[in-house]
Fold this sequence. Notes:
The protein is mainly alpha-helical. It has helices spanning about 5-30, 35-55, 60.
Amino acid sequence: MNMQxxxxxxxxxxxxxxxxxxxxxxxxxxxxxxxxRLGRFMHNLVANFERDATNGYHKWEANL
Length: 64
């Protein structure tokens, strides 16, 4: 892997770090209920997909 500054690699890095940040914020909401707006938005998106995949139940609701 060469360390040239080509734009495609830069875009990939930005997307990767953004996904990592979103994952961290989303994980924090699951654990502590921290109200971060971007994280809350992504959490709702993920939760909707989870609800569709589990017949109307969230994963955390199924464990209650």
